Each structure stands twice: as structure tokens, then as C-alpha cells.
Predict the 3D structure of the following.
Amino acid sequence: MKRSRLMPILVIPALAAGYYVLGVTPHLGAQPRTPHGSTVQASDRTFMMKAAAGGREEVELGRLAQKHASNDAVRRFGQRMVADHAKANQELRDLATSKGVDLPEKAVQHDSTGDRLALLRGQEFDRQYVNDMVRDHKRDVAEFRHMQSTVSDPDVKAWIDKTLPTLEDHLKTIEGIHAQMASAQR
């Protein structure tokens, strides 16, 4: 009989300690931590990882544009991609670190766009790079606008609010370059 009365007294504190260690119980108003130690919700974390991968790709493709482009506007746009996206990438890395989100340093999957563009030179490179940048920036701007209204973490939202105008300006600029190149071919 004594044993059955002691069992709840021993089990309840043990369970509570286990839940605390696993992060199941929120502590003093803080958000519960995920198994990876992050306080960021899964959808926000996924967005951060996707944005980091996309930003790294923009830097790599911008470097290619500086080397392979024949059009000065395309080369300058490549320089801008390297500068702007390197800055945004660093800000995102700093934010991710502060939130306990591990961003992979390298792209997880093979980048066929970079491989394909690396084989091109001159006007052929210019045309393909500009088409890719228009498509990518349209997609990125749409995703950032969507996340701007659905993101949960206020710091991630602040980063989106700061970064989105730059992406919108990139889109406007590359669409202008695209239009100039199209009219020059006529």
C-alpha cells in the first residue's frame, strides 16, 4: 500500500523534469523550442532556409554574370546581385543564429541553372541570365509578399519587410534590361 502512494509522488516530478528537458513545457512565456532548439515555427524556418538558398544562388549567378555577360547592364546587374544578396544573406544568417535556426552553408541539391549558365558566353549568356532573373525575381517577390502576411516570428517579418523592397527593385531593373534587350533585337 505504501508503494502505490509513493509512486505518483515520484513519477509526477520525473515526468515534469522530462518534459522540461525535451522543451515540451514552455518556460516563463517563451515560445516552446523545437527539437533543434529553435523558437521559430516550422513554416518560418522553412522560408528562412529557402530564402538563404535562393540568396546564395543569386550571388553565385551574379558572379557568373560579371564574368560571362557581354551587355554592360547585365554585368552591372550581376554586380548588384552579389552586393545586395550577400548583404541580405548575412543579415538572414545573423537572424537565424539568434533564433537557433541552422541554415546550411551550401546548397543541398545540385544547381542546374548555374551549371547551364556557366557553359554560356556573350549574348547567349545575357539572354538566358536575364530570362532566369526575371522568372526568379517574380517568384521571389510573390513568395516574400505572401510570407509578409503569414510569417509568425516578428523578427523574420522585419527582415522580410526590409528585404522585399530590394527584391522588387531588382525585378523592376531586370524587367527593364529585358525590355531593352528585346527592343535591340528588333
Q: What stands out?
A: Residues 10-35 have pLDDT under 50 and may be disordered. Residues 37 and 100 are 6 Å apart (CA to CA).
